[in-house]
Amino acid sequence: MVVFCFALIILIISAPSSYSQREMEYLGRGLVGIVKNDREVFLSWRLLGTDPQTVAFNLYRSTDSKPLVKLNKIPITDSTCFTDTNVNLSSANCYFVRPLLNGCELEPCTPFCIKSNPPALPYISIRLQTPDGYSPNDGSVGDLDGDGEYEIVIHQVGRGRDNSQNGFTTAPIFEAYKLDGT
Question: Which helix (H) or strand (E) element contains residue 96?
Fold first, then answer.
């Protein structure tokens, strides 16, 4: 009887937590763009865990603060990426995505901006502020300031030694960067 009561108490205590909703971090759309060549930019954004199955997207570009240009003819429903095939990269361009629910556009995401005359690279280049005597060693991502956008955390190492050896080592440095390099 004691074992049965103990098992019943454990079941009652653990039941609410097993039915509770999964905790998720607050994240924005995370729109990013990669310059493919002198006329094309590949854009990608995040589908949120809270988005309904019927969500669609409209993608916009602003060039040198000129009026917005909608890039898709019909709402984007089957992906979270798009290639802008007619962009003037000799000017600065900013992109943003607006989700559509039941035909109504919602608030735009944080814009992703590309400076004029960018190099075509298969990655986003961020200038690191590496102190003298140090070098980048490892990196990870996370939303450090709670704004819904990931920052990159870089582990900088200086003069390191194996623990079995005598000698001085330098303290590790951890730095965080936003995707714009700040």
Answer: strand 93-101
CATH at 74? 2.60.40.10
Q: What is the DSSP letter of 103?
A: T
- Tell whether 120 is covered by a domain: no
State which residues form the domain around 87.
32-114
Structure tokens at 166: 């005598």
Distance from C-alpha of 87 to C-alpha of 28, rounded to nearest angstrom: 25
**What percent of the residues of the chain are helix, what percent strand, and what percent coil, each to the nearest 5?**
10, 30, 60
Can you tell me which residue has the tokens 């865990």? 49
Read off the pLDDT of residues 98-156 as tens digits, 9 standing for 90 and up: 999 998 999 999 999 999 999 999 999 999 999 999 999 899 999 999 999 999 999 99
Domain-embedded: residue 106: yes
Question: Residue 148: CB partners within 8 Å, gap ≥ 6?
Answer: 26, 27, 28, 110
- For the chain, helix (H) and strand (E) counts, in that order, are 1, 11
* Domain presence at residue 5: no
**And the tokens for 175?**
């730095």
- Eight-state DSSP code of residue 54: T
In a domain, 125, yes or no: no
Does pTM top 0.85 for this prediction?
A: no
